[in-house]
Amino acid sequence: MNYVPLSDFKWGWIFRHRELPIPSEQLELIRPLAKDSANQFWKTHISKEATHASHFLGDDWPSRNGVWQPKEDWQSGWESDNNDLPILLAEHIQWESNVTIFFCYDVDHIVQSRWDIFQQHWKNFLFVDDQPILVGKGRQEVARFNSDGSYQVGTRPK
């Protein structure tokens, strides 16, 4: 995979926000995929046709029945002083801290990191909340976030 510097990433500012600082050694573990790599990852793991979550088709796994659990609220946790993950998300995803994650904003904008980095800095990732999808490398558990402050956890079909 190819990457772009965080400073060149469209939403790189969300990881350098003054109110939610991320230590520089952890910033190095937040790696935006270059457009060609993001496109390939999206087409392989999210959707062959749709370019954004709002455009999923019936044969895309995120639009299938039975993938997602009922919606829960993430916004209240995001607005609080508590940095803990939303409860359902923490209960559903029990990955080892070094699991590679991909936070997929759309076909062109995907960030690779580690689960422990996401757990600690999930609020930064959600400054842009237009239906991103969280997937883990080699894992079936997934989550998606909505701009209305809700999220869903689910299980990606094999």
Helix content: 10-25%
| Major sheet strand order | 1-4-3-5-6-7-2
- The whole-angstrom Rg is 15 Å
Contiguous runs where pLDDT drops below 50 for at least 5 residues: none
Mean pLDDT over the full residue set: 95
Number of domains: 1
Whole-Å distance between the termini?
Answer: 23 Å
Instruction: Report the order of strands and helices.
Output: HEHEHHEEHEEE
- Structural class, from helix and strand content? alpha+beta
**Counting H and I runs of at least 4 residues, what is the number of helices?**
5
Task: Give the overall form.
Answer: globular
Topology:
Layout: H1 24-27, E1 31-32, H2 35-45, E2 72-73, H3 75-79, H4 87-92, E3 100-106, E4 109-114, H5 115-125, E5 133-136, E6 141-145, E7 150-155
Antiparallel strand pairs: 1-4, 2-7, 3-4, 3-5, 5-6, 6-7
Notes on the structure:
- With 158 residues, the protein is of the alpha+beta class.
- The protein has one domain (6-155).
- It is 23% helix and 20% strand.
- It has 5 helices and 7 strands, in the order αβαβααββαβββ.
- Strands 1-4-3-5-6-7-2 form a 7-stranded antiparallel sheet, sandwiched between helices.
- A hairpin with a 4-residue loop joins β6 (141-145) and β7 (150-155).
- It is globular and about 40 Å long.
- The two termini are 23 Å apart.
